[in-house]
Each structure stands twice: as structure tokens, then as C-alpha cells.
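EI: anyone free to look at a 174-residue chain?
SC: sure, send it
EI:
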Amino acid sequence: MKSKLRKLLLLLIFSQVVLSAQPVLADTGPKPSMEFTFRQESLEDQLTIVSGILYECEQPDCSDASPLKELGPQRFTCDVSSCSATAYGFAPYHKIEIEFSDEETRESNVFETAGFNSRYTVTVRPDDLLVEAQFSLGVVPPLVVLLVACICALIGLGGLAGLTIFLVRRSKKN
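SC: here you go
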């Protein structure tokens, strides 16, 4: 009996050690994001992206610019042809600074956050970058799209049911 109790106790201790050694992950749900698609004004030399910085600003002129801090999933990343950002929350104004394969660093105009999932087109010009927001359904949260679709379906079904009742009653009168 003592050996069974001892084995059970050792098993419990062992399971606590193993389970508590697992990392604990917590998520607060979806996070705002930004996607940047680059296009070049001149097609002579195709430039690739080397690195980039997203600056966050509270002032419309970006006089208080500070780089987006890398905290957990919050970060600004670039590959050779595009950049993206995820954050716990974005400031109202931004600008980006991108280093290209021609060893030139270009800075963008100041732009506003376009929505929860913002998409931008960045035009690479000889001396700077022009960032323009793209309108897409990605800006509208999926739950809103689903809600609007359900309301439209209900209105459509209600109209169909009303038309059916009207036609049945009319045919009975004749």
C-alpha cells in the first residue's frame, strides 16, 4: 500500500514538473495590422528592400515620431518586396523609412491609420516614398461583413415569404 502511495505521489510531482515547464501563451485577440505593397516609379533598376522602420506619431506633422517598439507580436518587418506591421494599437499618424538595395534610405510622407487591417501602396520615387491608403474589405472587420450578410438574407427571405403569401391569397380570391 505504501509503495502504491509513493508511486502516486512521485507521479504527481513528476507531472507537475513537466506541465509547469511548458510555456504559457496568452493572446488578447486580433491585433491591428498594416500591409505595405511597393511599386517603383521608374522600372530602370528594380530595387529590393533591405530594412525598414515604422514611425508612430501623435502629431499630424510627425514632429514627435518614434519607432514602433518590438513587443511580443508587435513589430514592423520587411522582406525584399513588401513590409507589414502588427501592433497592440497604432498611433493616428505614421511615416516609414526604408533602406533599399541601392544603399539609399528613403522616407515617406506622413499618413494616417486607414483602419483595423490597413493596406497601403508605397510608390518608390528617386528621393522619397509616397504612401497611399488602399480601400479594401480587409478594413471592415469580418464580423461586420457577416452581420450585414445575415441581415440582407433575412430581408430577402422575409420579402420572398411576403410575396408568396400575397400570391396565394390573391389566387384564392379569384
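EI: The beta strands are 33-40, 49-57, 66-67, 75-78, 82-86, 93-100, 105-107, 111-112, 117-124, 129-134.
SC: 👍
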